[in-house]
Each structure stands twice: as structure tokens, then as C-alpha cells.
Amino acid sequence: MLTAIVHIDCDAAAIPEVAAQIAEIEGVSEVYSVTGEVDLIALVRVREHETLADVIASRVSKVPGVLRTQTYIAFRAYSRHDLEEAFALGLED
């Protein structure tokens, strides 16, 4: 599974509408409105690179109100949940 974190700049007057449209795109698992330098952050999870290109370049970028996207491909995920499970391997409670 490939995960991409997509930073999205959009028309500030249309943030809720843009976010809702992006959230409906197949492959987009979550969309967050955020503070900072970008308006929205979307998580895209797909099985193949070709699908990733289609979702971001052909669909997310084409949503009316999207001005610019910047995509980061995730290599590895780290979370407290994952680390707790790793350290608990082979140990009894």
C-alpha cells in the first residue's frame, strides 16, 4: 500500500466545499483543514504508483478551487501503536 500526504492550497472562500469534494475521491482516505502554510492536507492510500498519479494529478488537482498541490510519498510509518506492538512481541501480560 502506498501512502501520500498531499498539501493543498485552495481558494480560501471554498475550503469546506473543496475538502468535501476531495474526500469523495476514491483513494483519498482523509482530508484535514489545517492551520499553517497550506489550507488542506489529504491522505491518499492506493496500491499502485499509476493509481497514485491518477488520483492526485488527474482528480485532486482538478477539483474546482484547488490552486496548487504538493505531494509527499511516505516510506515508512511510525506510531505509538506500532511501537507498543513491536515491543510487546513475545511478552506475556
From TrEMBL:
Q: Which InterPro entries match?
A: Dimeric_a/b-barrel, Tscrpt_reg_AsnC/Lrp_C
List the protein's name.
Lrp/AsnC family transcriptional regulator
Which molecular function GO terms apply here? Answer: sequence-specific DNA binding
Instruction: Give the SUPFAM superfamilies listed for this entry.
Output: Dimeric alpha+beta barrel
Q: What is the lineage of its organism?
A: Bacteria, Bacillati, Actinomycetota, Actinomycetes, Micrococcales
Q: Which GO terms describe its biological process?
A: response to amino acid
Gene Ontology cellular component list? cytosol
Can you tell me where the transmembrane regions are? none
Using the record for this protein, list the coiled-coil segments as residue ranges, or answer none. none
The UniProt record lists the Transcription regulator AsnC/Lrp ligand binding domain at 6-76
Which Pfam families does this UniProt record tie to the protein?
A: AsnC_trans_reg
